[in-house]
């Protein structure tokens, strides 16, 4: 079973509610299936929404948060285990160490940084973790088009395709994980 689900996502509250609904479905699934959420540990945005729904179903939560974010008063009270690290690079590495797979909900620059770190480091065989882009409402379409340009113009090898999958919504993300598990 894929136990520890790493989630990269928005830490802002001013986004379309549709994205919060998807985060809630993901949190419900993690909690109901006895999995563990591994995430950024903040008390805002899709991070907190996902964590609230995991906790509602008595799922386990590991928050990995930077000291700086804690000093800003944005530390969630929901994690069962809260790991405070020095900076974002240390946070990404700790998440890679602890998660079995990653789901990238819609997010901003921090989310993109996390996604590309996981994909690039998997390509270099530092780990074998996979990223699933949750492309709700076509959120990642333009980014995925740019990635296609990387391949077409030979800035990236198509081997990178082995390190990520695109799902149209959170239900499809869950199906992908369940299909991976059925083959294990």
Automatic annotation (TrEMBL):
EC number assigned by the record: 3.2.2.n1
Entries under Pfam families matching the protein: Lysine_decarbox
Q: Name one GO molecular function term.
A: AMP nucleosidase activity
Catalytic activity reported: AMP + H2O = D-ribose 5-phosphate + adenine
Q: Give the top-rank taxon of the lineage listed in the UniProt record for this protein.
A: Bacteria
Which BP terms does GO give this entry?
Answer: cytokinin biosynthetic process
Protein keywords: Cytokinin biosynthesis, Hydrolase
Name of the top EC class for this enzyme: hydrolase
GO cellular component terms, alphabetically, are: cytosol
Query: PANTHER family, per this entry?
Result: LOG FAMILY PROTEIN YJL055W
Name of the protein this chain belongs to: Cytokinin riboside 5'-monophosphate phosphoribohydrolase
């Amino acid at each position: 079973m894929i136990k520890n689900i790493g989630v990269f996502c928005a830490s802002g509250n001013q986004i379309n509610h549709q994205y919060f609904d998807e985060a809630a479905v993901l949190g419900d699934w993690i909690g109901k299936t006895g999995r563990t959420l591994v995430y950024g540990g903040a008390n805002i945005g899709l991070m907190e929404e996902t964590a609230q729904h995991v906790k509602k179903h008595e799922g386990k939560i590991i928050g990995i948060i930077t000291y700086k974010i804690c000093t800003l008063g944005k530390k969630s009270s929901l994690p069962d285990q809260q790991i405070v690290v020095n900076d974002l690079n240390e946070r990404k590495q700790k998440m890679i160490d602890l998660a079995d797979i990653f789901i990238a909900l819609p997010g901003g620059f921090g989310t993109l940084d996390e996604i590309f770190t996981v994909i690039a480091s998997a390509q270099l065989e530092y780990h074998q973790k996979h990223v699933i882009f949750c492309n709700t409402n076509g959120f990642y379409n333009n980014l995925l088009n740019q990635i296609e340009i990387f391949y077409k113009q030979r800035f990236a090898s198509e081997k990178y395709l082995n390190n990520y999958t695109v799902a149209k919504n959170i239900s499809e993300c869950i199906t992908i994980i369940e299909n991976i598990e059925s083959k294990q």
